[in-house]
Design goal:
With 320 residues, this protein is α/β, with parallel strands linked by helices. Helices cover 34% and strands 18% of the residues.
Length: 320
């Protein structure tokens, strides 16, 4: 398996320095270092189990949108967006709802990891299709709980939910299901995700779209026919207008989605339904004004503590 690591803030060894760790925790959440550690373990497992033909892109930020997709897996079985969580405890995944245990029942949990995972898949779909290319297969959103202390009760969730003991069977299933993407298509989509190209005209939609790889196995067309379909998608004429990755500045919203807005397969997700534009936030040294305010407050607190310490020392041991 080919691994392409786009994790921000890490050094050439893939490690976080203290300053970058603190910055990452402010930007991505206080569990971010733990999530990176869990990602690394899962990536290592995938690398050992999956054969050639698979590519895994780690922590790719989609242009100016600021949306970072933890893991994108492309291969013969399809395209998967994988979200890793370090949570522990008892949760429920019901439809597009993500609930946590409360007494004898469950209550809505924040953030909603089901909707976050689904929106990442929708964002990646828009990232590709706004280049004028129609995906021949739906992008499958997968939520993986990497902590052995996490238990999830799944009731027809809108995304595939895996606990740590289900990862092996998921990977094994990828190796046994029928091929839905040719090696050529995997390469083309990988290149488009990493290096977006000018918008194309005249792209066609494949006559039939396979079902999700983890739901059922479909009989595939002959290899020659499959390659020609992929070629038809990618050989359309290009427009002269230069491509600007910053045009992809959609953002995930925090509101709850309508109950019918997400389906288990997400096969009919509309890329244009994403919010049009994120509110512009000026960043200084990679942080928003709010994050800078938190850092400034912490600095002031540390200075006050230091001043109190100096005062106590001077009053306890006066100078002669």
């Amino acid at each position: 398996m080919k691994i392409i690591d786009k994790t921000p803030l890490v050094n050439e060894k893939g490690e976080l320095a203290p300053a970058q760790r603190f910055q990452g925790m402010l930007k991505y959440g206080f569990n971010w270092p733990n999530e990176l550690r869990d990602q690394k373990a899962i990536v290592t497992f995938f690398d050992r189990q999956l054969e050639k033909g698979y590519t895994l892109i780690r922590n790719l930020t989609l242009g100016a949108s600021g949306i970072t997709v933890p893991m994108i897996l492309l291969g013969p079985a399809g395209i998967f967006v994988i979200h890793i969580t370090h949570l522990r405890g008892r949760y429920e995944a019901r439809g597009n709802a993500w609930n946590e245990e409360a007494g004898t029942g469950f209550k809505p949990a924040s953030p909603n990891l089901i909707q976050e995972t689904a929106r990442m898949a929708s964002a990646l779909k828009a990232w590709i299709e706004r280049q004028g290319v129609k995906l021949p297969v739906p992008i499958e959103p997968v939520l993986i709980g990497a902590n052995p202390g996490l238990h999830v009760e799944s009731v027809k969730p809108a995304v595939r939910v895996l606990m740590i003991d289900g990862i092996k069977s998921f990977v094994t299933n990828l190796s046994t299901v029928g091929r839905v993407l040719s090696a050529e298509a995997v390469h083309e989509f990988t290149e488009r995700i990493l290096n977006p190209r000018p918008v194309r005209k005249g792209t066609g939609i494949p006559a039939a779209m396979p079902a999700p790889a983890w739901e059922e196995e479909k009989t595939q067309p002959p290899p020659g026919q499959q390659v020609s379909r992929a070629r038809a998608i990618f050989d359309a004429s290009e427009e002269s207008k230069p491509f600007d990755p910053s045009d992809f500045d959609f953002a995930m919203m925090d509101e709850e989605a309508a109950p019918d807005s997400l389906t288990p397969a997400l096969a009919d997700t509309n890329a244009e339904a994403l919010p049009a534009r994120a509110a512009g936030r000026k960043r200084v040294i990679g942080m928003t004004p709010g994050q800078l305010g938190i850092v400034a407050a912490l600095v002031v607190i540390l200075l006050l503590i230091a001043a109190v310490f100096v005062y106590l020392v001077l009053t306890s041991f006066p100078l002669p």
